[in-house]
């Protein structure tokens, strides 16, 4: 039997049993099963905090439908429930069934590990990424970002995690995120960025770009905001320092990026993990990616959502003036509310 030890890392995610995007239960099961397997394989003591937001009354709770851990596992799972009556107190609660970033704040405030990874429930993590976590060499004063690689969702939920990871590595549809070698350059998914012999060329271009850009411009250019809601890792101390994510009662798009801007105003340094230390995202419908511009337009008109350029300008001003980038009260993350936990 594995002796329980204090977790080194808290994985924080949120969901509800509403079949969002199709095959939601399948994707959640793959996520949890993958975590259990890799925590055991790499001997990483960890906890998964699943914030169950506004659970549908006509469906079973997540604790009854997701894979169970045992005393022999290195992973523990905590379900924290935000009930419908609290959800309904927020603006746009009838149009948005889940407030993702407020839910993640609930998990951050209640995390027991020294490092907290905010992530999502339709991901697998590469073995190279878990090897990084297993070294337990994360540092306070830094936040860590990993590329997200989208893959087809055609995994057999009853299959082996090793087979899933092999399939994922060989079936990447698109890669989102910065290069660890030149984070101030964009379009890292182009074919030129895939060849290591091009690294010195782009590193030179990166240095030249820094020389002609202001400090604030460089910081904002280097922010690895693409799909950062899927993987942002920092110490709990640093999460508390930035007061988690801004608790704005709108759709979650861009709020994850605001967390990175807030970290920059506190001089918390970005670390982009290497190319193979990535996450694999099971593609699904009803996400924020769009098949065409018409769908994108309809999406923005049907949900209350933030304007990126306003966020960018406010962030630039905060970085230039060493100002605050804070939106939350002292009890952010519903810290003043006693929530049911399983």
List keywords for this structure.
single chain; 342 residues; alpha/beta; Spore Coat Polysaccharide Biosynthesis Protein SpsA, Chain A; eight-stranded mixed beta sheet; four-stranded mixed beta sheet; globular
For this structure, what is the CATH class? Alpha Beta
How far apart lie the N and C ends? 22 Å
Helical fraction equals 25-40%
Please give the largest β-sheet.
8 strands, mixed
Strand fraction equals 15-25%
**Could you say which overall geometry the principal axes of the C-alpha atoms support?**
globular
User: CATH topology, which one?
Assistant: Spore Coat Polysaccharide Biosynthesis Protein SpsA, Chain A
Structural class designation: alpha/beta
Strand arrangement within the widest β-sheet reads: 10-6-9-4-1-2-3-12
Radius of gyration: 20 Å
CATH architecture label? Alpha-Beta Complex
Give your account of this protein's structure:
The protein has 342 residues and is of the alpha/beta class. It has one domain (9-177, 224-323): Spore Coat Polysaccharide Biosynthesis Protein SpsA, Chain A, CATH 3.90.550. The chain has helices at 24-41, 62-65, 84-87, 100-110, 127-134, 161-170, 199-212, 215-222, 236-242, 255-265, 293-302, 308-320; strands at 9-15, 46-53, 75-82, 115-119, 123-125, 142-145, 148-151, 174-176, 231-235, 269-272, 279-282, 340-341. The model has no long low-confidence stretch (mean pLDDT 90).
